[in-house]
Amino acid sequence: MRKHFFSGIQPSGRLHIGNYLGAIKQWTGLQDQYEPVFGIVDYHAMTVRYDPGDMPGRVLDAAASYLAAGLDPERSILMVQSHVHEHVELAWILNCVTPMGRLSRIPTFKEKVRQNPDNINMGLFGYPVLMAADILLYKSEIVPVGEDQVPHLEFTREVARKFNSVFGETFPEPAEVLSRGAKVLGLDGVNKMSKSLDNCLYLDDSDEEIAKKISTAMTDPSRKRRNDPGNPDICNIFSYHEVFSTPDEIEHCANGCRTAEIGCLDCKRILIAHLQDLVSPIREKRVELLSRPDDLVDVLRVGGTRARSIARATMAEVRERTGVTLGRDSA
Ligand code: TYM
Description:
- By secondary structure, this protein is mainly alpha-helical.
- It is built from 13 helices and five strands.
- The chain has helices at about 15-30, 40-45, 55-70, 85-95, 100-105, 105-115, 120-135, 150-165, 205-215, 235-245, 245-260, 265-290, 295-320, and strands at about 5-10, 35-40, 75-80, 140-145, 175.
- A three-stranded parallel sheet has the order 1-2-3, sandwiched between helices.
- Ligand 1 binds near residues 18, 22, 134, 135 and 149.
């Protein structure tokens, strides 16, 4: 039987190439060896203010991106976090072995407090505990994520260790799996590519948008004129080449830039073609999938049922360990 692991994305807007490279691309390669659970984590998305009327559309949109980017609902379990109540049940139990001081030191909490000073809620504070529950509920040994999630994985290991030491060996300590694109910078060349920073190349951008965004994106800031030699090591566009282009193209761009034989636009043209090749089939498939929303909902329903049966087995064990069994059915 294939082992499970959980990884997920918040339905907080359109998915971008950071999500693709940091997470989804790796996921597609793990569907034979494991039976992974890929969640659309809607409870996590509730930690910031949102319009409830938008949520169903955002969940559908994420489901379409999952499928369009190559996730296979036969080999993987595609689900919505809120369809499986056990996620919140386990989160509560893990809350009870989590020191508050430890949570307050998590860098993503500090960052969120800076971004949302008017809405510092308990959900935001306990966000990593719910994430630990997502991961441990499926006894994940690996979790493929982008680099920004590493502090959450460290925290998850600590919680697993603590639970095991208090209540007996129950959970493995999961390791993060990072890809080559684990930290994709945004088009500004400074910050991580992020929905909240408006510096993204989206998985549904048109060919024209891709060309325009890359043509105007930051390059090596020290290269002011066409004839100045540049430094690929500090060029954001070159960091994209390292992920998307062939070894020959990477060498051509690096040498051409250092010697000023090629200009930034030449270098960008090669990249634009690769990005268009990556994004256009995903974009077209998404449109087709979104034209059949009922089929997408069916995929999520089936995924929810499959996920729940794994989650129930883990929770039966957790209830035994924690002594909350009297008078209740094992499910
Ligand atoms: P989220 O929704 O912010 O991002 C989803 C995935 O995309 C990766 N990612 C990136 N990778 C490389 N470069 C970038 N610029 C970039 N931006 C985003 C993220 O690292 C992530 O893997 N807390 C999680 C969601 C979550 C989860 C989980 C993940 C909830 N429960 C359990 C794994 C396991 C989050 O906010 O991801």
